[in-house]
Each structure stands twice: as C-alpha cells, then as structure tokens.
Design a protein that fits this description.
Immunoglobulin-like, 25% helix, 2 domains, single chain, six-stranded antiparallel β-sheet
C-alpha cells in the first residue's frame, strides 16, 4: 500500500502566516516529503470560496483558482492557478500524487436571492461567477424540477445544496472533474461530505474515461462518510457495485477507537480486535487516519504516536495529518521514534494479512505475515502495543517464523530505552516487549 498526507489543516495559511501562498509553501516541503517516502498529498479545495480568505468548503466559482477579482480578492486563500500548477509539477517530479478535495454538494456566496417557485421560499441561489463557467439559479439546487424529493442526503450548515439530477449541474460536475485530472494534472479525488448526495454521483465521476498523458486514466477516489461502520460498509458496497471496487472511505470508526486508546485511561485494547471498523471488515477500501481538519476540539491530545503506529502497520491506506507531522513535531526524521520510521516499516515490511497473536486489556500483539511478488517483497513484522503507563510489557507469542532473529525498527513510549533484538525458538515462540504507553515494531533479519 502507500501513504498519503493531508497537506493542510483548518485555516492553515492564516495560522502559518502563508495567506494566499499555501501552494508555494507546500511546494517547499515536497522534496523532503518524497524522501520520507510519502506517496501522495491531499490538497484543500482549489476553487474560489464565498470569500477569498475562505478555506474552500463553501465554493462559489469552481473555475476560479485564484485569477479573478471577486469575493474580496484575486487569489484564493491558497494562491492562484500558476502556483497550483507549479506545485503539481514539483510533486510529480518527486513521485508524489495529488488528490483534489471535491466539494460538490453545498455552495455559498450567491450574488442574489431568488424565490424558488416550487415551495415559495426565498434563498441565495443566483450565482454569476466571473469565470463565466457554471452560472446557476434556483433550479440547480434543492428543491428542483428534476427530482421528486427535496434532498438525496443530509443538509450541511444551511447552504444551498446542488441537485445533481439537473443536467446542467451533472454536466458541470463532470467537466470540473475532467478539468482537475486532465488539465491541472491531479491524480485523484477526496469527496467532501459524501452523506449529502447520492453515491451514484461519486460512482459515475470515478468511472468517467479520463485521458492523462495520452492514455486512459483511472483516478484514486476516497470519500468522507462521517458515520458508523455499518453505514460506511453499506455505502462502500453500493458505490463499488458500479465502479470495479476502486473507491475507499475514511475509517472514522477506527479513528474513534484510536482516540480512546490515546485519551481514555485504562482503555481495553481488546476493543481493537472486533469488526467495528472499516479496515477490519473491508481492508482494501479503508483509508485510515488519526486526526484531520474537522476534528477541532475532538483531536487526540495524549500519546498520539500510539495511533499512528497502529495505522501504519495494519492494512488500509494511512493518511498522515500535516499538523501532526510538522506542527506537533511527530515526523521525527532520522530517528526510530516518529512517523518517518513507521512509514519505512509500512513500505518495507507491512505486507500480507494481520494476525492477532495476543490481546488483553493492556497488551496487543500482531503479526503481518508478509507478501512477495515480482515487484514487492515485504517480509512481515511483529507489532506490540503496550497500554501500561509505568513499565515495559510483553509476553511470549507463537509467530510464523521459527529460529528467526528480529530487530526493533520503530518504537516510542514513556521510556526512551532501545528495545533488544529477539530470536524465536524452533516453534516460532519469543517474547516481544514494548515501552510503557508505547509501541515497538520488530522486523525479521535475514543474514
């Protein structure tokens, strides 16, 4: 699998004093991120919002990437088109893909109010964007003449919600997606607030026959469906029924389990062993994460590396949060104690199925069995998570490797001591410990 980074956080350009300059600021980090073996960056919404200082989740003009003087300024909060294209070019030169944040549900910043004749309500639904692309009126939003019901999904923040069954809206969303892939060079999409519209819309945008560099191109697609495991699972089944099983969803259920691991005293680690997460039930469709721009006051505040260690050694497509990596200093390049060391383990060893070898309230031990093909050789690993706050902890487990030496490749916790190498006996048994309130990842050594 690969590793992505969410390359922003809420109002990041303002808080970092990089207002209207974020694309350039991210570009300065691209070379280092490539060397740290990230595979892709998820960027914030690229279009002009209802205010030029808005973070993009209230889109006004989809085709204004910061080049039209409207909504209080020319540039978006992040920059302009030329700067975005320079970032895309530099990222690709450093083997990083780019994912566009697709906010295709709610709009804001309309130029006029108008009465919707279907219900007599007055709303801000008259849009006359300066780009000249996708002007819209009440019939582009719910309720519309093109549907029997008012809304397919949930409303968000009282904004007008696009009616995708209107042919003008449907066509505009296709053209916008094509523009992002074929003209700008994006490699995939993250769909915002997927609960707000039909899964069919994501399905058809995903299966459009894009052409990139003269060849048909299939974008990576992940959706934000902020819900429980059953609803997310049903949505994945529904949307992938029309898309050859390519679409993923962020694993919110796992994220809340990991918050409990980090922030709830005496959390029972056996809670990590059930099927109450996307990654356990549908590992090929799970994008795992620890925190994101929406968490705000619900962010993980204690021992966050426990959570990062978990998502980087298990199945799924892990997403690293810019704020944690940089602002919280968890990247820790050049050490075995941070995200960079775990990314190396993820790429070099974390292949094959996860098999739980031991789980009790305070200790969790898992092995990845390894995977090998003509292109990939990931020999597997042993992962230990210790919930005790005052001592190292481990236990003897039976692994799949007899007479095998293991070295610690990544670890962190409330004790900075270096874990010792371990060697299994003829039956594959050995004891694998981890630091207090910490983790340790052991990888096989082949001599």
């Amino acid at each position: 699998m690969a590793v992505m980074m969410q390359a922003f956080y809420w109002d990041a350009p303002i808080l970092e004093k990089q207002e209207h300059n974020w694309w350039n600021f991210v570009a300065e980090h691209v070379e280092a991120l490539g060397k740290s073996r990230f595979n892709a960056l998820w960027l914030p919404p690229v279009s002009k919002a209802a205010d030029s200082r808005g973070n993009g989740y209230d889109p006004y003009d989809y085709w204004d990437l910061g080049d039209y003087d409207q909504k209080g300024g020319v540039k978006t909060l992040y920059g302009n088109r030329a700067e975005l294209e320079a970032l895309l070019k530099k990222a690709h030169e450093n083997n990083l893909g780019l994912y566009a944040d697709m906010v295709i549900n709610h709009n804001s910043g309309a130029d006029e109010e108008e009465v919707n004749p279907l219900d007599g309500q007055k709303r801000w639904t008259k849009f006359n964007p300066k780009s000249g692309s996708f002007p819209r009126d009440w019939n582009c939003f719910h309720p519309s003449r093109y549907e029997q019901v008012m809304v397919e999904g949930e409303n968000f923040a009282g904004f007008p919600h696009l009616c995708h069954r209107n042919p003008d809206v449907y066509k505009a969303m296709f053209e916008y997606a094509r523009f992002l892939i074929e003209e700008l060079g994006f490699d995939g999409f993250r769909f915002d607030f997927a609960k707000g519209f039909g899964a069919w819309m994501i399905g058809i945008l995903s299966k459009y026959r894009y052409v990139k560099n003269g060849e048909e191109f299939t974008p990576f697609v992940v959706a934000e469906l902020w819900s429980g495991s059953e609803e997310i699972g049903a949505w994945i089944d529904r949307v992938n029924g029309m898309t050859d099983n390519q679409i993923m969803a962020f694993d919110f259920p796992l994220r809340y389990k990991l918050k409990d691991v980090c922030d709830t005293p005496n959390y029972d680690l056996r809670g990590l062993t059930d099927n109450g997460s996307v990654v356990t039930a549908r590992p090929m469709h799970a994008a795992t994460f620890v925190d994101n721009h929406d968490m705000g006051g619900n962010a993980i505040v204690n021992d966050k590396m426990l959570a990062y260690s978990f998502i980087l050694v298990h199945e799924g497509y892990p997403c690293i949060f810019w704020y944690d990596y940089y602002n919280n200093g968890l990247g820790r390049g050049g050490t075995p104690n941070g995200i960079d060391a775990l990314i190396a383990v993820h790429h070099d060893n974390a292949g094959g199925d996860s098999q739980i070898l031991h789980a009790d309230p305070d200790l969790y031990i898992m092995q990845r069995v390894g995977y090998k093909s003509d292109m990939v050789n990931q020999p597997g690993l042993i992962y230990v998570l210790n919930n005790l706050g005052d001592k190292w902890s481990g236990t003897s487990v039976k692994t799949q490797w007899p007479n095998q030496k293991f070295r610690p490749a990544a670890w962190d916790g409330h004790d900075s001591a270096h874990p010792d190498e371990r060697t299994t006996d003829a039956d594959g048994n050995a004891e694998f410990p981890a630091p207090p309130r910490g983790y340790a990842v052991y990888v096989p050594v082949f001599e």
